[in-house]
């Protein structure tokens, strides 16, 4: 009888230990980092042969419905990271016509405007890694991206920028993000793809390799 009690106690200790390990694993699983992909993308109506170095918000004609080039990259990043997608939209919509959009973007920059976001961001406390995508307009970020970084706290977050552009690559965006969010961990190995190259067949592979290099392993 004593031997049975000893064995029963030993088995109980094993079961309790197993349950404790299970609970620990469950807690760890729930604590796994989450990824958010924030992007601003404005498809344009533009002639196929039009080229300029000012706006990187082109429309990707091969997709239906129309998809802005920055949105196209955001969707590929989301597919690889399984993160949450959030599209920035402004309270006042931008024009779809290319020349009109350029004029509005130029005026916003000259007046140092801060366009309002139509929808608030998700609760950033739920995320550790935040990708932020935007076109380059007039050699800098759109003013709504300034609104994003000035009106929200990214402290302690890993911020990973990606851009589409018409020739200006990242422009001054890394310096500006660092200035506005000095307590964020800014990944400077940002992705920058010309809008003229966005439909190239090697872009998905390029994005996949980049995400593997910059996505934190937690």
Q: Could you explain how this protein is built, in words?
A:
The protein is of the alpha/beta class. It is 38% helix and 16% strand. The protein has helices at residues 2-30, 69-81, 98-110, 143-150, 173-180, 203-214; strands at 35-39, 59-60, 67-68, 84-87, 129-135, 158-165, 185-186, 191-194. The strands form 2 sheets. Strands 1, 4, 5, 6, 7 and 8 form a 6-stranded parallel sheet that branches. Strands 2-3 form a two-stranded antiparallel ribbon. Helix 2 (69-81) packs across helix 6 (203-214).
Tally the beta strands.
Answer: 8
Radius of gyration: 23 Å
Please summarize the sheet with the most strands: 6 strands, parallel
Instruction: Pick out the low-confidence regions.
Output: 1-32, 48-65
Helical stretch tally? 6
Q: Helicity, in percent?
A: 25-40%
Shape: globular
What topology emerges from the helices and strands here?
Blueprint: H1 2-30, E1 35-39, E2 59-60, E3 67-68, H2 69-81, E4 84-87, H3 98-110, E5 129-135, H4 143-150, E6 158-165, H5 173-180, E7 185-186, E8 191-194, H6 203-214
Parallel strand pairs: 1-4, 1-5, 5-6, 6-7, 6-8
Antiparallel strand pairs: 2-3
Helix pairs in contact: 2-6
List descriptors.
218 residues; alpha/beta; six-stranded parallel sheet; two-stranded antiparallel ribbon; 6 helices; 8 strands; 38% helix; disordered N terminus
């Amino acid at each position: 009888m004593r031997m049975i009690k000893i064995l029963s106690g030993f088995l109980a200790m094993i079961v309790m230990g197993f349950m404790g390990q299970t609970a620990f694993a469950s807690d760890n699983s729930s604590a796994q980092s989450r990824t958010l992909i924030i992007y601003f993308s404005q498809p344009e109506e533009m002639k196929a042969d039009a080229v300029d170095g000012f706006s990187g918000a082109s429309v990707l004609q091969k997709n239906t419905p129309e998809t802005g080039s920055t949105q196209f990259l955001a969707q590929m990043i989301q597919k690889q990271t399984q993160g949450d997608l959030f599209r920035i939209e402004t309270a006042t919509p931008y024009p779809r016509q290319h020349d009109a959009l350029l004029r509005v973007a130029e005026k916003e920059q000259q007046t140092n405007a801060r366009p309002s976001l139509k929808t608030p961001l998700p609760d950033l406390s739920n995320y550790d890694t935040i990708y932020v995508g935007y076109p380059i307009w007039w050699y800098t970020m759109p003013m709504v991206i300034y609104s994003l970084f000035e009106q929200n706290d990214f402290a302690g977050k890993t911020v990973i920028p990606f851009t589409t552009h018409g020739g200006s690559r990242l422009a001054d965006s890394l310096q500006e993000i660092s200035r506005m969010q000095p307590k964020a961990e800014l990944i400077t190995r940002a992705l920058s793809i010309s809008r003229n190259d966005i439909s190239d067949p090697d872009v998905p592979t390029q994005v996949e390799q980049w995400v593997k290099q910059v996505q934190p392993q937690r």
